[in-house]
Amino acid sequence: MTTIEGVLFDFSGTLLHIEPAERWLRAALAAGGTDMADDEIVRRAAALERAGALPGGAPPAELPDALAGEWEIRDRDARRHRAVYTGLARQVPLPAPELYDLLYDRHRTADAWQPYPDAAEVLAELHRRGIRIGVLSNIGWDLRPVLRAHGLERYVDTCVLSYEHGLQKPDPQLFAVACRELGLAPSAVLMVGDDRTADGGATALGCAFLPVDPLPADGRPDGLRPVLDLVGRG
């Protein structure tokens, strides 16, 4: 078996988890100075969640025909990503039109994301062992400031983001880019992620794959620690 010399981590549902939809909506309302009754906030947040409007949250319960084609390739372009998610949000009536953009902007902030409890510990230990570390994400915006704000970027050697390359997982080309960024052959790289289709696509290139469960952060205290058993100790 080839020794693992580098680890690629997915972002959402793997290293960090997005905030609940109700908190997300409350933050956007506060940013816009818009009032809404508590019971209405609860109802609208649930509707936004069903619509799949929260990036990093649940997918749409029912995808509108007008967005179906764009949904499949949403992570290849920043403008498309915003258009798709604000389009999904607009299915839910809100009291001010600017709230749809405020919701999208909110999910890109560090406050909207909670690292998994073992994320910093695992990344720090891998770094100590001399393991190359990358973040490989299907995403439409720059997640580096979020990693930096949570103290994780210091351990990361490279970030490969779908929208910056016009490719998205499970396309083998994106995994190939990430392996080149790490300076390693795919056979020496482990991909860690919560999506067996998207992240598991790394195996087509010859990478190993470790799935994790995208539970809320407080419900998965040690889901990343098995990574440490799969790489050499320094």
From TrEMBL:
> Which InterPro entries has this protein been placed in?
HAD-like_sf, HAD-SF_hydro_IA, HAD_sf
- Domain of life of the organism encoding this protein: Bacteria
Q: Tell me, what is one Gene Ontology molecular-function annotation carried by this entry?
A: hydrolase activity
Q: Which Pfam families match?
A: Hydrolase
> What SUPFAM superfamilies does the record tag this protein with?
HAD-like
* Assigned keywords, A-Z: Hydrolase
Statement: the UniProt record of this protein carries the keyword Hydrolase: yes
Q: What is this protein called?
A: Hydrolase
